[in-house]
Amino acid sequence: DAPSIELPGGVIDRGEDPVEAARRELCEETGFTTGEARLLGSVHPNPAIQNNTCHLVFASDARQTAEVAWDHDEEMETLTTPMADTLAWARTGRITHALSLNALFMFEPHWLTMKLR
Length: 117
Fold this sequence. Notes:
Layout: H1 18-30, E1 32-33, E2 36-43, E3 54-60, E4 63-64, H2 83-92, H3 98-116
């Protein structure tokens, strides 16, 4: 019953490609669409008691082009922040969602390389 800062995410439909599911969820939850997206990696959230896999996807050049299409039980606000600020929030405990932290820290080396170009 408390708000948290999280990256867009959701459930993959049966037979759906993880990257395409990420594009769909990004659009549904934020109204942002992207032409390019790629899988950064996959993690097992809690293999001791769950058998699911979380796929972490990077979408570049996202633009808000659509209306949000939230599920009936979703309450959200879309934030856009500089990546350096977002990583600082992750390091200082402002972001606590474990799967969002996985994605951010898996993306960080790619972001650092992109900054050097």
